[in-house]
Design goal:
The chain has 198 residues and is α+β, with helices and mostly antiparallel strands. The chain folds into 2 domains: 1-132, Beta Polymerase, domain 2 (2-Layer Sandwich); 134-198. The chain has 9 helices and 6 strands. The chain has helices spanning 12-29, 37-44, 61-73, 80-89, 110-117, 134-144, 147-159, 166-176, 183-195, and strands spanning 32-36, 53-58, 92-97, 100-105, 120-124, 127-131. It has a 4-stranded mixed sheet. The protein has a two-stranded antiparallel ribbon with strand order 5-6.
């Protein structure tokens, strides 16, 4: 799989420092997490640029203040009351490290919790971290379904076509979509497209 160094923007050294500070905080606290988003996509597919960090984190409400205080101690710009409120109520909040935006997501539905359950150990930016599996990343991207997500899904399907547990992806998709949702036929078309590469 591609390395991440060539995919980092000009401020890549700052992103690397932000990543190290985030991962060390989560590891030291023993929080359940998985790196998702652009860095996980790079890990599983092709080199593409990314300038932020996304992590799915399971933190009980009682532990949220401790998490944000620990991040502040590592150099992150944190607004503890706002970050707690957003993570608790919306399932998403952002902190910054020297201008690098770090989005923290909390699993709100079972499909997101399953991404955490199936996360894999990987070496990323010289850190041993938990990263979403290819299947989990596809599921998260099917939830968001922005143009970049569609492109990433297709790349993951092609890169891992022989190893993916496609049925687990289909099963998860059914839990957050209804019959007639365009994401279902799109996924099947992309799977067929990937298989034609063999």
């Amino acid at each position: 799989m591609p390395g991440t160094d060539s995919s980092l923007p000009n401020g890549g050294k700052t992103l690397r420092r932000a990543f190290e500070a985030l991962v060390s905080t989560l590891n030291d606290r023993g929080d359940r997490y998985a790196i998702i988003g652009g860095l996980a996509t790079i890990q599983h597919t092709r080199v593409r640029t990314t300038d932020d960090i996304d992590a799915l984190v399971a933190v009980p409400q009682i532990g949220m203040a401790g998490l944000f205080e620990a991040l502040r101690a590592k150099g992150f710009v944190v607004d503890v009351p706002r970050n707690i409120r957003e993570l608790r109520d919306d399932g998403l909040t952002s902190v910054q490290f020297e201008g690098v935006i770090v989005d923290l997501l909390r699993p709100l539905i079972p499909a997101q919790s399953h991404v955490l359950d199936r996360a894999v150990q990987a070496e990323l930016l010289d850190q041993r971290v938990r990263v979403s599996s290819p299947e989990g990343l596809i599921v998260l991207k099917l939830m968001a379904m922005r143009p970049q997500d569609e492109s990433d899904i297709r790349d993951i399907l092609i890169a891992h076509r022989a190893q993916l547990d496609l049925q687990s992806i289909r099963n998860e998709l059914e839990t957050f979509t209804r019959e007639g949702d365009e994401r279902r036929p799109k996924l099947e078309a992309w799977i067929a497209e990937a298989k034609q590469r063999d």
